[in-house]
Amino acid sequence: MKYLIKNADYIFSQPEKTDIRIDGSRIIQIGKNLLIKEGEQVIDAENTIIYPGFVNTHHHIAQSVIKGIPTGLNQNLSAWLASVPYTYWPHFTPELMYWAAKLGFYEQLRSGVTSCADHHYLYHKNTSQELEDAVWQAAAEVGIKLVLCRGGATVRGTHKGMQKNNIEPESIDLALKRIDDSRTRYHQTTADATQKIVVAPTTIMHSAKADDLKSFASYARNHKLRLHSHLLEVDFDEQTAQEKYQMSAVQFAQSVDWLGPDVWFAHLVKTTNSDINVLAQSGTGIAHCPTSNCRLGSGIAPLLKMRDAGMPISIGVDGSASAEAASMLQEINLTWLLHRAVGGANATHLQECVHWATESGAKMLGLDNVGRIEVGQQADLVLWDITHYRYQGIHEKAYAPIMAGEPAKIKMSFVNGIPVVKGGEPINLRYSELTQNLTEQIQLLKNRICA
Ligand SMILES: [Zn+2]
Asked: Are residues 110 and 247 in the same domain?
């Protein structure tokens, strides 16, 4: 399809331009007063500002249906892991996973996301591949880009949640075989890829032995896949590294080949200056997830020190069970606010926060032609409707969505030049169908938990 988007009030990083021409999956022209060509569908972008689609670099979309679990409301990370995700996920069916994913993608599309890295860790020795297939299927149906970070554990480890719920880990051989099967079925290497797989044991400190981590890293690099995991969300990772390996957690990551420009970690809240230097020198990135870090009382990642040291920075929503949301708009807004509160009024600015949530995140995920509105880039675009009541009275409309946060309204979104949101609603997902199926599936989940 060919589209001509005309008369936008503002285009991110292209302030003098008003029009964008799309041919197929790409932006082919940006300008002012562009003439309509034959065969083009014209989109009236008056009263909109256009951003690149947001790139969410850390999520657990399965958690969309286990938000606000009463026992987990006031717990820290360790206790919450045992009482929320590890209690519920062994009871997930492919049907529940499918509708959980649809809900997660629905909320992300409504908050301006066009690419989502989902850290999917519902794997154990006897797991069903259909749980993973359900996420791929849901993403393809709604039209969002999916980078599936393939989690799981190859050791039972110290985790109370795994022990309590009798979750039997995969062997390293089984995990690698299954990852390879998924890579063959889903991973795309084309320039316009909408599906990518990442090697992502759930946490490098607790989910795998050192030798297993080296095997994961070696497999990933042999197949040009990226590596992702949780690290240093809380102090426990550092304590474990010191006790088990007599080195810091970041030194441990280095010792098992888990640092580099093809690696990014979620959280990194408890990093020291020395950790940050090692991470920066290796080009290792962070997925900053401020809402979840606040919600679980984990702390605030030293993002400004990371930026100043030259670390790649991106933003993620983390799992909805520790954020009660999957809104990139909320995370970007909170990033802007938190780090000004911590670092002062000159600490960061709106444009930098948008950069972290778009171009910087896309680069981290290996989406090379995503994250900027430029000729030749993939047409992953979001037209924010600035007639929305939250933006009334704002003078600097260009940054209204980031300043105002949720709720917001999107006039239209595109992924690879294909419309996915129109009039505020995802095009390929009816809300009534979503809620009806979620109600049924969540009741069945409750029944299984009580049985
Ligand atoms: Zn996480």
From this structure: yes
195-237 pLDDT, tens per residue? Answer: 999 999 999 999 999 999 999 999 999 999 999 999 999 999 9
- 78 pLDDT above the threshold of 80: yes
Is residue 372 one of the residues assigned to a domain? no
Categorize the per-residue pLDDT at 161 as very low, low, confident or very high, splitting at 50, 70 and 90.
Answer: low
What's the per-residue H, E or C state across the chain? CEEEEECCCEECCCCCCCEEEEECCEEEEEECCCCCCCCCEEEECCCEEEEECEEEEEECHHHHHCCCCHHHCCCCHHHHHHHCHHHHHHHCCHHHHHHHHHHHHHHHHHCCEEEEEEEECCCCCCCCHHHHHHHHHHHHHHCCEEEEEECCCCCCCCCHHHHHCCCCCCCHHHHHHHHHHHHHHHCCCCCCCCEEEEECCCECCCCCCHHHHHHHHHHHHHCCCCEEEEECCCCHHHHHHHHHHCCCHHHHHHHCCCCCCCEEEEECCCCCHHHHHHHHHHCCEEEECHHHHHHCCCCCCCHHHHHHHCCCEEECCCCHHHCCCCCHHHHHHHHHHHHHHHHCCCCCCHHHHHHHHHHHHHHHHCCCCCCCCCCCCECCEEEEECCCHHHCCCCCHHHHHHHHCCCCCEEEEEECCEEEEECCEECCCCHHHHHHHHHHHHHHHHHHHHC
CA of residue 9 to ligand 1 center, whole Å: 36
Structural domain for 35, as ranges? 2-52+378-426
CA of 103 to the centre of ligand 1 (A): 18
Whether pLDDT at 38 is above 80: yes
Task: Report how far ligand 1's centroid is from the alpha carbon of 289 (Å).
Answer: 8
- What is the whole-number distance in angstroms between the Cα of residue 44 and the centre of ligand 1? 39
> What pLDDT, on a 0 to 100 scale, did the predictor assign at position 167?
76
Residues 27, 132 within the same domain: no
Cα 53 to middle of ligand 1, angstroms: 21
Tally of domains within the chain = 2
